[in-house]
Amino acid sequence: MFNQFGSTAETLSKASAVMLRIGTDAHLYDDPEDVNIVPLLDSKFESEKCEALKRLLALIAQGFDVSNFFPQVVKNVASQSSEVKKLVYLYLLHYAEKRPNEALLSINYFQKDLGDPNPLVRAWALRTMAGIRLHVIAPLALAAVSKCVRDPAVYVRKCAANALPKLHDLRLEEHAPAIEELVGILLNDHSPGVVGAAAAAFTSICPNNFKLIRKNFKKLCQILPDVEEWGQILLIGTLLRYVVARHGLVRESLMLSIHGLDNNGFYEKDGPVRDITFDKGDGDNSDSFDANLVSLVSRSYIEGPDEYLSRSSFPEIESSAFDSKETTSIAYNEDVKILLQCTSPLLWSNNSAVVLAAAGVQWIMAPLEDVKKIVKPLLFLLRSSSASKYVVLCNILVFAKAVPSLFTPHFENFFICSSDAYQVKAHKLEMLSLIATTSSIASILREFEDYIKDPDRRFAADTVAAIGLCAKRLPSIPTTCLDGLLALVRQESFAGDLKSVDGEAGVLVQAVMSIQTIIDRDPLSHEKVIIQLFRSLDSIKVAPARATIIWMVGVYCSLGHIIPRMLTTITKYLAWSFKSEASETKLQILNTTAKVLASAEVEDFQMLKRIVVYVLELGECDLSYDVRDRTRFLKKVLSCKLACHDPAEDSVTSEENIAAHVVEHVFGRKLKPSSPLAMHNRFYLPGSLSQIVLHAAPGYEPLPKPCSYVFEEHDQLSDSDRQREATADLNGSQESSETVDEDGSSEYDSESYSGSDFSSDGDERTISNDAADPLIQISEIDVSTDQEELRSKRALDLWLDDQPSTSNQTSSALDRNQSSYAKISIGDIGSRVKPKSYALLDPGNGNGLKVDYTFLSEVSTVSPLHVCVEVLFENISTEPILEVNLEDEEAMKESDSAEQTLVGKANASFNNVPTLIPMEEISCLEPRQSAKRLIQVRFHHHLLPTRLTLHYNGKKVPVKLRPDLGYLVKPFSMSIEEFLATESRLPGMFEYSRRCTFTDHVKDSRKENGKDRFLSICESITLKVLSNSNLYLVSVDLPVANTLEDATGLRLRFSSKILSSEIPLLITITVEGKCTEVLKLTVKINCEETVFGLNLLNRIANFMVEPVDQQN
């Protein structure tokens, strides 16, 4: 085609593909290793940055690792372009866990973006913060979510709801109540999109906190039809669980009507079989069935794993019926009415999962006469949705097993289509066999005749099995079914040598088994059919079919008058064909011959005994282990029969022969028929994945126990009353706290100590104190835990520009008496403070030169960016070391490295400050001699080491001087009033805490038996803190109400400023536990520099856990 233009089909196809790619980003996938990404990321044009970021995301989609671009990408987080910002956020979400330190440095930008006027930017920032799964930023992310749940933009609030499960997955036990409170706020939202996301958060965070649902139940029911489809599924399940837990099951529902519970709450005396009529116009729609199955279904919806295992282990124990106290009547329960009304329209939803969820509510809670409304929506879904056909059928099967009459008039909807998958065909066959009635069986059997001719012989075999089930259920059609099944057995195609159970062989096996099922209903009237099967043994070559017929020989060997006379001939034939049979057939031959011998008459006994002995001898020499083992067992069991010459003789002596009793029990009696309802069957809630896979899938939860959630009296108050009381309590608490602050602020004068008061020699440090002050002073100021929490909460609400929250402030908590605190004065501990030393150079690598360094508490006089470090040089070798000096590795040079890019803006004015102030050179260091030098170092980042060069003996050795976060701050003197005022201005995002343990005081208490325990604990904590950081001790407070053994409530406050930015940093350590046991410390930091504060928090928590001997 178009050959005159030189075109071919191939070239036209390529041209068409090129045209389709125009205007798209498909070209980004063509060059996966583009080396121009870095220059584009550093470009000053936003379009080029956007192109580079798209290329990186394309590489990620193709499986390439592009984490090496992390520094260049992160610096673009401050871009003003929303498109660039969005792409940067996507990249950060992918690699934040691999590069946590660099990801933390962008937290400040996320916080700034949370206040951006564009709601999309705010939502992206929140999604990224919540997606960075790091415990260290979890408090910041929680504070951000707390702000965004009140955002005016719907999309931002929806992102906040989606972020809550991510925070919950981090296992933040101390923040669990706050997270649940935020879920309750979102459930009360007026936007359907937010409510759907809130329902998902509720399901994964607190699925049993029904108090949150009770407050908003009617509103949730009203907004349910407007929620997005996947949110409707979760919300329907949540509302159903709430109604069951709050009110119980409905007496008029199918679940309790089957139990025989009448409308007055009393149990009827009828048996377990009930007649339920859904359509009086057709008599066939009334179906009498066994109520045990429905009872099992209703129990399975509610019972947990332990109850199910108990029921499976002891099936003979009947479970107790539902108590009338655990039920409710729909006539008097408005919540149930509202739930059923709001879910009824959803039965015709476009989403099949929503239809199943709504049908599940109607199935469990609707009155008996209203259950039929689920039928037509399910059938419509079965016809219209091919993708979900199998899932819908699995749920319909459960409904049909419980109440077949529901779907009896609609049997034609379950006829097989040629395009159906095999699993769908199998379920439809089972449905047809369940709902077949005397009026519809003729049409169903005609369909079955066509199905048997289907080329898929496995499906044809299932059809034959379905015919047997129909004949078993309907006693009026066995004769018709038997004729057709016998015709199948007599077909010429089955006379061939069929070795497997596939294809035609499977049809034959199912035909024989269906015949056996029909015969079992009335064996005596089907004696001729049994004889006809016995005679067809020679023509049937399929092993399972032969084994089934041989089994029937043993079962019906004493039936009627003709079969006993045929036993000798049949057993001779079985013994003759034993060698050529399959293993499963041989096992049945052994069992059948034993049964025949056990029931043999006198005239045939000797002949049958010789045949059995011959068969047992053949079995002992068989190649199959199973056959040989079965032969030995039967030979031992039949020893009494084989030893006697007359069956009458055996009956005389059988009373004292154990073997004879075993034979009589095993082969002489029929086993009791098993119940069609297996007690180990397990049913799951409609629409759940567990109902499809037939086991409890991960995350599956049964319905709660009926009426298991009982509200307390104060929960019954109206919302307006609760809000009015909470507001009054809050106003009263605010007035009392202000009064306390005004009265006690001038009285609180704590003894304060600073790390900077120590002398600079590093060996002996003195701390100023007044020896005349008492050890413990009682202060009239009341700084209680409740007040501090209230103050922090009020400040957070003001920061969010919202009204103060009252959800966590109950009247009981605010009316609690505030405990007075006593201040503790610590004595002179300066000589006991020993800063930790670090190794700079190991003597093995330095040819005998050992270099250690210790951070000093002195503040540099050169620049606020410099830290004073004392370096100890020691010669361990036997030769002198000459010209020892430490210098900067290189002058400050332009670099695009991550540490240069991510330095804070506060350091921008100090770019000309040198990294290292030159130290005085050591001309000679004799063997076993040491020397100290003071150096002043500037760290470009608080986590990254500074590279230096050590010179000695004409050599240059590169070394790394690693920063200690505790000495990148300086002491900042302040009073307790100033401390509390500064702390109140740094709540929410700027406040983070961490828990740890402390054990140093235990060792100290053993050494100093006569010392005050509280003072020992205070000194141990203070020593540990001041030995690892450069802080100012503001106060040490202890609750006066504490006992002599209880240190709970002991609080130490430290203050400082960050060297590089002069930003205040406050540290509060709260003690919990007994004085003689391991203490639990809560370390809290308030600081505007969130990244620095979080890293310092981790540093403090780590060294507080370390024993003293590991630090020294």
From TrEMBL:
Biological process terms in GO annotation: intracellular protein transport; vesicle-mediated transport
Pfam families named among the record's database cross-references: Adaptin_N, AP3B1_C_2
UniProt domain AP-3 complex subunit beta C-terminal: residue ranges: 792-944
UniProt-listed Gene3D superfamilies: Leucine-rich Repeat Variant
Compartments it resides in: Cytoplasmic vesicle, Clathrin-coated vesicle membrane; Golgi apparatus
Membrane disposition: Peripheral membrane protein
Keyword Protease: no
Record's keyword annotation contains Phosphoprotein: yes
Stretches with biased composition (Basic and acidic residues): 714-727
InterPro entries: AP3_beta, AP3B1/2_C, AP3B_C, AP_beta, ARM-like, ARM-type_fold, Clathrin/coatomer_adapt-like_N
GO cellular component assignments: AP-3 adaptor complex; clathrin-coated vesicle membrane; Golgi apparatus
Domain of life from the UniProt record: Eukaryota
Composition-biased stretches (Acidic residues): 738-750
SMART domains referenced in this protein's UniProt entry, alphabetically: AP3B1_C
Region (Disordered), start-end ranges: 714-773
Primary site of residence: membrane
Keyword annotations: Cytoplasmic vesicle, Golgi apparatus, Membrane, Phosphoprotein, Protein transport, Transport
Family: Belongs to the adaptor complexes large subunit family.
PANTHER family for the chain: ADAPTOR COMPLEX SUBUNIT BETA FAMILY MEMBER
Protein name: AP-3 complex subunit beta
Organism from which the protein derives: Arabis nemorensis
Taxonomic lineage of the native organism: Eukaryota, Viridiplantae, Streptophyta, Embryophyta, Tracheophyta
